[in-house]
Write a structure and sequence with these properties.
This protein has 489 residues and is an alpha+beta fold. The protein folds into two domains: 133 residues, OB fold (Dihydrolipoamide Acetyltransferase, E2P); 261 residues, Bira Bifunctional Protein, Domain 2 (BirA Bifunctional Protein, domain 2, 2-Layer Sandwich), CATH 3.30.930.10. The chain contains 17 helices and 19 strands. Strands 6, 10, 11, 14, 15, 16, 17, 18 and 19 form a nine-stranded mixed β-sheet that branches. It has a five-stranded mixed barrel with strand order 1-2-3-5-4. The longest helix has 23 residues. The model has no long low-confidence stretch (mean pLDDT 93).
C-alpha cells in the first residue's frame, strides 16, 4: 500500500498537469444552480433540463469509457455519470488523469434515473473547483484514535454522520436558548472579554498582557456577570449574553478551559422566579434541539417533564457524610474528605474549598432533574442571604445525573455586604486560594448607586454535552489540542 506521502506526490503531479493545460485548480467561483437536496426532493421537475451542482467526490467507479462517481455537498449526495462519447475524448481523458476521490468539482448535466432506479446526473461538462492533495480515508480505520479524530475534526465531521448531526444540533441548541430569552423580553448584550478584575465566579483566570495600555489583563471567567449587573443599575431590566469564557483549571469529562456560556439577569425577580424560568428554558431547549424530554445520561434515565425536585444542600451533605456544613470547621471536613478518600487541592485549603469538595462528592448521588437550594454563604459570595437563615443564600443550581448544570441566585445588591464579602474573598486569595474572587472596587461603587432586586443565572455547554451523553470535549467542534511533537513551528 502506498504511503500518504507517495499518494500526495501523485496528486501534486495531477495538480501540475491541470496547470499545464491552463486550468486553475482552485477557481474562486462556481456556477451552481441547485443544491443536491433540492434536486433530489423535486427530481421530476428537473428532468430533461440542465442543472449545475457542486460538491466533493466521495466515491469513484471507473468502467472503461464511462465513470460513475458520487458528489456530496452540504445538503446531500447524488451520483454523476460520465461517458466519453458524451463529453468528448479529451475532456474524459483529463478527468481520468487528474480527478481523485476528495476533489471538489462542478458538474453540468441532465438528471435521469438509472436502470437500478438511482437518481443520477448525466454529465455534459465538468470543472475542477478544488484539487485535494491528501486522500480522504476510505473508512474510519485511519482515525480510530480519539486524539487523532479530535485533531482532524474536519475529517471526523466529513465521514461521521453522527458528528455532523451533533454540530447541527449544537447550533439549534444555542439558537433555541436565544429564541426563548428574546421571546421573554430579554435583550442580548455584549460585555468585555478582557477585564482588569476577573469577576463573577470562583475560578482561576488566564492572564495576558495588553501592549497598548502596557498592563496585564484577565480573560473573563464569567459571561459578564458584574457587567450585566451594572446594566441592572442602568435601568435595563432583562439582559443576557452568549459567548466564550475561559478558566485556567483542570480538564475532565465536564470541564474545559475555553467554552460557551449563557448568563441572564432579570430585575425585580428572585431565585424562586428564576427556578421557574430555568425549568421552562431547559425543557424548551431540549425539545427544540432533540425533539424529546427523555434522555439516557450516564446510564440514568432522565425525564425533564417530571416534577423537578428540591435538594437542600445541608440535608444532602448530612445524609451522605454526616457533616453539618453550617456547624463545622475546615479541619473536621478535611478529616472526612480523607476518610472518604476524596482527592482535593491542599494549596490554599480553607473552609470554603473543604465544603465545596464535600458537596461535589455528594451531588453525584442525585439523579434529578431538580434544583439544589440552601447553599451556604461561604461558597456564595455574590448571592443574597436567606431571610430566615442568614448562613445560607438564595441560590439555586439545576441538578441532572449527578452534576450541576447551571448556577443562579437572588443577586446580592447591598453594597456594604458585597464589599465585606469581597474582602473575605480577597483574604482567601492572599492565603493561596487561586479560585477565590477578586475585590472589584468599581462594581461596589456601581452598587452604591442602587441595583434593583435581581435574579441572575448562568449555564454552559455542559448542558448540551449531558443531553448528548458525551464528554464535553467531544461535543466541541474544535477542542483545544496539544500540538503534535513533530509539527513544524
Amino acid at each position: 500500500m502506498a504511503s500518504i506521502q507517495e499518494l500526495r506526490n501523485e496528486r501534486i503531479k495531477k495538480l501540475q498537469l491541470l496547470k499545464d493545460k491552463g486550468i486553475d485548480p482552485y477557481p474562486a467561483i462556481s456556477n451552481r444552480s441547485n443544491l443536491i437536496s433540492e434536486l433530489l426532493e423535486s427530481f421530476d421537475k428537473f428532468k430533461e433540463k440542465n442543472v449545475v451542482v457542486v460538491g466533493r467526490i466521495t466515491a469513484l467507479r471507473r468502467h472503461g469509457g464511462s465513470t460513475f462517481f458520487d458528489v456530496l455537498d452540504g445538503t446531500g449526495k447524488i451520483q454523476g455519470f460520465l461517458k466519453q462519447d458524451e463529453i468528448g475524448e479529451d475532456s474524459y481523458k483529463l478527468f481520468e488523469e487528474t480527478i481523485d476521490r476528495g476533489d471538489f468539482i462542478e458538474i453540468t448535466g441532465e438528471p435521469y434515473i438509472t436502470k437500478s432506479e438511482e437518481k443520477s446526473i448525466l454529465v455534459r461538462e465538468w470543472k475542477i473547483l478544488t484539487k485535494s492533495l491528501r486522500p480522504i480515508p476510505e473508512d474510519w480505520f485511519g482515525l480510530k484514535d480519539e486524539e487523532e479524530r479530535l485533531r482532524k475534526r474536519y475529517l471526523d465531521i466529513l465521514l461521521n454522520k453522527e458528528i455532523r448531526e451533533m454540530v447541527e444540533k449544537k447550533s439549534v441548541f444555542w439558537n433555541s436558548v436565544r429564541e426563548f430569552l428574546l421571546k421573554k423580553g430579554f435583550i442580548e448584550v455584549e460585555t468585555p472579554a478582557l477585564e482588569i478584575t476577573a469577576g463573577g465566579a470562583d475560578a482561576k483566570p488566564f492572564i495576558t498582557h495588553h501592549n497598548a495600555l502596557d498592563m496585564d489583563v484577565y480573560l473573563r471567567i464569567s459571561m459578564g456577570e458584574l457587567w450585566q449587573k451594572r446594566l441592572m443599575v442602568s435601568g435595563i431590566e432583562k439582559t443576557f449574553e452568549i459567548g466564550r469564557q475561559f478558566r485556567n483549571e483542570g480538564m475532565d469529562a465536564e470541564h474545559l478551559q475555553d467554552y460557551t456560556q449563557m448568563e441572564f439577569y432579570w430585575a425585580f425577580a428572585d431565585y424562586e422566579k428564576g427556578m421557574e424560568l430555568v425549568e421552562e428554558l431547559y425543557k424548551y431547549v431540549a425539545e427544540k434541539t432533540f425533539g424529546t424530554l427523555r434522555f439516557n445520561i450516564k446510564g440514568q434515565e432522565i425525564d425533564l417533564e417530571k416534577k423537578w425536585e428540591r435538594y437542600d444542600y445541608r440535608d444532602v451533605v448530612r445524609k451522605f457524610t454526616g457533616v453539618d456544613v453550617l456547624e463545622t470547621t475546615a479541619k473536621e471536613v478535611e478529616k472526612k474528605l480523607q476518610e472518604l478518600k476524596i482527592d482535593y487541592n491542599k494549596k490554599g485549603f480553607n473552609l470554603n474549598r473543604a465544603i465545596d469538595n464535600l458537596w461535589k462528592y455528594c451531588r453525584r448521588k442525585l439523579v434529578g432533574p431538580g434544583f439544589v437550594v440552601g447553599v451556604p454563604k461561604e461558597v456564595s459570595p455574590l448571592a443574597k442571604s436567606d431571610l430566615k437563615e442568614p448562613r445560607i443564600t438564595q441560590r439555586f443550581q439545576p441538578i441532572i445525573a449527578g452534576s450541576e448544570l447551571g448556577n443562579g441566585f437572588s443577586e446580592l445588591n447591598d453594597p456594604i455586604d458585597q464589599a465585606e464579602r469581597f474582602k473575605k474573598q480577597s483574604d482567601l486569595r492572599e492565603a493561596g486560594d487561586e479560585e477565590a474572587q477578586m475585590y472589584d472596587k468599581d462594581f461596589v461603587e456601581a452598587l452604591e448607586y442602587g441595583m434593583p432586586p435581581t435574579c441572575g443565572f448562568g449555564m454552559s455547554e455542559r448542558f448540551f454535552a449531558f443531553l448528548m451523553n458525551k464528554p464535553i470535549r467531544e461535543t466541541q467542534i474544535f477542542p483545544l489540542m496539544k500540538p503534535e511533537e513533530n509539527q513544524p513551528r
